[in-house]
Amino acid sequence: MSTETEEIADIKVDTIGDFYFPENHVYDAGFGLSEKTIDYICDVKNDPEWVREFRKKALQVFNEKPMPTHWATKDLENIHFDEFRYYLAGDRKPKRSWDEVPEEIKRTFDRLGIPEQERKYLAGVEAQYDSEAAYSNIKAAVEEQGVIFVNSTEGLQKHPEIFRKWFGKVIPTGDNKFSALNSAVFSGGSFIYIPPGVKVKHPLQAYFRINSEQFGQFERTLIIADEGAEVMYMEGCTAPKFETATLHSAVVELVAMKDAKIQYVTVQNWSSNVFNLVTKRGLAHENAEIRWIDCNIGSRLTMKYPGVVMKGRKARGEVISIALANTGQHQDTGAKMIHAADETTSNVISKSISIGQGRSTYRGLVHIPKHLKGCKNNTECDALLINSRSRTDTYPAISVRGNQHATQHEASVSQVSAEQLFYMQQRGLSEAEAMSLSVNGFINDLVREFPMEYSVELKRLIDLEMEGSVG
Amino acid sequence: MSTALMSAPATVATWFSKLQYQAGERFAAMPSPIRTDEHWRYGSVKQAEAMLAIESVAALSDADKGRALSESTSTLEAAVRLIFANDELLNPEALGSLPEGVTLVPLLEAASRMPELMQEHFMARETSLGGIKFSQMHQARTRAGIVLHVAKGVQMEKPIEVFHWIGGRGSVFPHTLIVSEPNSQITVLEHQRSLDDEEQGVVAVTDLHARDGAKIIYGVVQDLNLKSRAVHLTSASVHKAATATALLMNLGAAWVRNESVSRMEGAGAESYMLGVSSPHDTQEVDQRTFQHHAAPRAKSDLLYKNVLDDQARTVFSGLIFVDEGAHYTDAYQTCRNLLNSDTCEANSMPGLEINADQVKCSHGSTSSPVDKDELFYLMARGIPDQASRTLITLGFLEDVFTRLNHEALQTAVCQRLEEKFAVPF
């Protein structure tokens, strides 16, 4: 984080993402979660009856499921669900023109650089502020190709024939406690449909911003690339740091039909009070490809294991991830690769860096069931430890049946070599600069996978995280 | 331990009887493993329950004892060869020929003759890999096995060989405790074998203690019949500049559960954990390992190789754990599965938990079939398909044995493996 000291009226400013405006909500579901909360959300959003039912069933599942602390961190038990607000919104309708966006929200996204990116680089952008999208726009040329890019509420109301067919099919409500929570109170997120054969040249982007204290953000994203379609979607997330905890529990479902390609890029930079518990999974049909490119910086606890179910022959799944855990943070990330058809291939490359007393964890699953032929998986995870109190863990699980598959998993833990640091210091770099350069070198080959604008941002974020962390 | 000693419990040390009674109470009160326990992930709790229910074996007939004595053969030129059958030592006279400084005593006798050593080491550390109920079962019922003490500086060249035979329906509980004092050296090879085709069980515990600069090489070849079940809990405490090498080889049994812990207690400690399994038919091998680095500058290297045929199934779950302050740790963990049939199943869960920096730790796991190019090369030279596959399989497993760093032991275990595969030229 930078030490920016700009003074802006009405907002508190410390660092790039760590500022917030006073709350000015029209809609507030209040604290705690019950059927009343769900009715409130349904009424405000004018949800169809099936969605109300869906949400209430999900609430039941959420209440019944225990916290997964038999394998995960006990810090989950510090989440007090009654102390969160589950729906906060100003004007509910997203603006199509930047000028119409309320001033304070506009200033928030201005500060985060959203409009410049949109003009320069993006095919469409959606900016979510607490529970609802504040701004949503898609370039006319892309829209003319039949591409749908709206928020999830608009998706389910205006395109029910596509939305309902896939919604909750890749990640069912009961998948885990947090997918059930999201299913109960979801709001915001993106709905994208790319018609057959359409290749969206420039990325679509969503930006998720939490502004309010003791708030839970539960966006729901559903992306469908029809036969032969291609799309890149990028998301960024920030939140200011409050004394109290903030909850972010998204569900992202991707569907790549035959020969389609979806690339989903996440750069998250949550503040260190956010519990970030996200479920992300893609369904790849014949010869389709789904790539998750994931960078996790910040948050108090992140639990996120993007997965691909390779349902069609020759489908491909890939997860490329970078995690950076600083003091007080636990990055529990990984990947799930479910091979469900012949000749499917998956690749996982994960790199983590633990700084100060930070803890990073890789948790993976590769599953190749019986009767399949010619499946391949490659998994590599490398961890870098920066200080004597930092910690890293790796827990993969690989299950293979039959003799026509090949899987390989490799993991290593190391530290920046003293010789390397010495060499750089001899040439005039400070210890911190040398360390930062080494860390950037460690992740350099993965950073190249990110779009250029994000690569630059990433390197900068890592430099900032590294400040003062050596010694 | 003589037969007389076994039939007269009054001669067993009181402290030991009391310990066994307490373990029996704990065993009875303890729940069986359940599916949601992380230590039993992918494992078979039904097999575990069946194993826990099986009674101890009855005494053997003289004819069976004779068969056990005559069939206890191997290529190993052993200093001492002890033969147990249904927990009874059949050749106590063999104990007389040991060099000075090496004390080898049957388990129950050791409880009376070496109480201090026994009280310090016998089941002193609770098992942490899910088999605690088996550990209590063993502690309550064990009555055979060896306690081996090697005095400071004594380096015994020839290995000690121990056979554990089992006949009829029921379980045996062989115990092995080896304490190797500073700068001593000892090698032990054990065999677990069935005399017949009855449903049998072995719940074995092996504890190795290598003091500063000591060197222990230990191997066990489990070759029970295909109705049997085998549980083996092994642990090694490796002190400053000491080395412990332990090989677990599984050729038989319907269901096998191996839990192995190696604890690096002193700087410069080295632990080599080796595993070879070749399950076929519907055999299942469940392996859980833990490399615990409690001291800096220690090394541990684990290599498990499995060859799976038919509907065989393996589970490997391993963890390298580095304590805070255990800097300059050098730890490796590798599990490789060779998949020889389209119905076999290999599950791998290698793991790392690192709490110190300045470490080199890595793990790897692979599962794949025989390399087609290798097969083509051999077949192009006139070697039939099946023979080529067997040669490749033996080659695949051989580098585990070379890590034993003991030629005679390597030859003995290799030969046992070759007998099993019996290359059909």
TrEMBL record, chain A:
Transmembrane segments: none annotated. Residues 208-442 form the SUF system FeS cluster assembly SufBD core domain. GO terms for biological process: iron-sulfur cluster assembly. Residues 47-205 form the SUF system FeS cluster assembly SufBD N-terminal domain. Belongs to the iron-sulfur cluster assembly SufBD family. PANTHER family: FES CLUSTER ASSEMBLY PROTEIN SUF, UPF0051 PROTEIN ABCI8, CHLOROPLASTIC-RELATED. This is Fe-S cluster assembly protein SufB. It comes from Roseimicrobium gellanilyticum.
UniProtKB/TrEMBL annotation, chain B:
It comes from the Bacteria. GO terms for biological process: iron-sulfur cluster assembly. InterPro entries: Fe-S_cluster_assembly_SufBD, SUF_FeS_clus_asmbl_SufBD_core, SUF_FeS_clus_asmbl_SufBD_sf, SUF_FeS_clus_asmbl_SufD, SufBD_N. Signal peptide: none annotated. Residues 16-162 form the SUF system FeS cluster assembly SufBD N-terminal domain. Pfam families: SUFBD_core, SufBD_N. SUPFAM superfamilies: Stabilizer of iron transporter SufD. Residues 170-396 form the SUF system FeS cluster assembly SufBD core domain. NCBIfam families: sufD. Belongs to the iron-sulfur cluster assembly SufBD family. This is Fe-S cluster assembly protein SufD.
